[in-house]
């Protein structure tokens, strides 16, 4: 894996300090302004759907499949019990500021998607600062390559692929989708796409960052720390390959259809709005769920608050998008 380096004691101490100082993370996006905790990245705190026990009883779970020889390259698979016929495949990439997070925190959400008739591959990947960019993108591409050869064993149909993620995972997913559909990016990265653009049916992008030239302006807490760790620099804007990470610069008409969402109180929401506008300008079909002007106060990763009306409504719109795109003729 490219650009790997050991984690220094100084960085470990800094990471530990941030995590301990912000034990109340995060994805409690349904909290009020007065209740909200400092939004740093750690293990996700969110609310599964009230019927998660019933959902889990209908879903097969296969844990910790190694999809590549690189560090932390494991995936969990979820698919409906007794499913008949090929299932569209969803590759999901967790968030965590490129330095934290785990596939385990996305299991309930992955099972919820799978229960609607999908094979969901929920992946882990090596984290910064031990693994630098472009390591996670390479690993996600390797996960697609693995699924190309193995998904059928679990009922998956690799002619109907979706990639998705949240926060940092949405950035990786968006770049992965661009890699499959934009030959110029693949050439620049010197990375062969794992699948053809014809296999891609859509991208699911929750509260991500897509423009490295403007992301600092978002004011998202600790954004410079996360991106400095990921790029191995003292100032991420100086990183020589930073343009590769700006998905907004790699949008073409061949980019897959997109479902994109962010809360109105998420500092990264303008990043999603700008990407949606850029995609539409290139003729890409975009379904967006934004809340501008609603004063709902939906924070970063509100999509995982599945005990709330807004979380549930976005889930239903996500499932509608998946159904429409997976049934479409290509």
TrEMBL record:
InterPro entries: AB_hydrolase_fold (IPR029058), BD-FAE-like_dom (IPR049492), GDXG_lipolytic_enzyme (IPR050300)
SUPFAM superfamilies: alpha/beta-Hydrolases (SSF53474)
Positions of the BD-FAE-like domain: 75-277
Molecular functions (GO terms): hydrolase activity
Keywords associated with the record: Hydrolase
Keyword Hydrolase: yes
Highest taxon of the lineage: Bacteria
Keyword flag Hydrolase: yes
One Pfam family recorded for the sequence: BD-FAE
Protein name: Alpha/beta hydrolase
Protein source organism: Planococcus maitriensis
């Amino acid at each position: 894996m490219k650009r790997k380096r050991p984690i220094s004691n100084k960085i470990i101490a800094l990471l530990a300090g941030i995590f301990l100082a912000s034990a109340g993370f995060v994805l409690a996006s349904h909290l009020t302004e007065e209740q909200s905790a400092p939004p740093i990245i750690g293990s996700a705190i969110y609310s599964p759907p009230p019927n998660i026990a019933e959902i889990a009883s209908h879903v097969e779970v296969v844990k910790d499949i190694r999809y590549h020889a690189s560090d932390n390259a494991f995936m969990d698979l979820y698919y409906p019990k007794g499913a008949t016929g090929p299932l569209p495949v969803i590759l999901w990439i967790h968030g965590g500021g490129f330095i934290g997070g785990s596939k385990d925190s996305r299991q309930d959400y992955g099972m919820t998607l799978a229960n609607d008739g999908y094979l969901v591959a929920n992946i882990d990947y090596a984290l910064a600062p031990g693994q630098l960019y472009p390591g996670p993108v390479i690993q996600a591409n390797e996960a697609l390559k693995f699924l190309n050869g193995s998904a059928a064993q679990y009922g998956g149909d690799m002619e109907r692929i979706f990639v998705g993620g949240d926060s940092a995972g949405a950035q990786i997913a968006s770049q992965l989708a661009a890699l499959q559909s934009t030959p110029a990016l693949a050439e620049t990265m010197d990375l062969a796409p794992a699948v053809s653009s014809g296999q891609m049916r859509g991208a699911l992008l929750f509260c991500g960052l897509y423009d490295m030239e403007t992301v600092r302006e978002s004011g998202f807490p600790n954004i410079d720390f996360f991106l400095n760790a990921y790029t191995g620099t003292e100032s991420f804007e100086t990183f020589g390959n930073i343009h590769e990470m700006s998905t907004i610069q790699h949008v073409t008409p061949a980019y897959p259809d997109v479902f994109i969402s962010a809360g109105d109180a998420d500092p990264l929401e303008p990043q999603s709005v700008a990407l949606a506008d850029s995609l539409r300008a290139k003729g890409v079909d975009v379904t967006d769920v934004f809340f501008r002007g609603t004063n709902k106060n939906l924070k970063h990763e509100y999509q995982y608050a599945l005990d709330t009306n807004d979380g549930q409504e976005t889930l239903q719109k996500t499932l509608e998008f998946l159904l429409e795109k997976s049934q479409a003729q290509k």
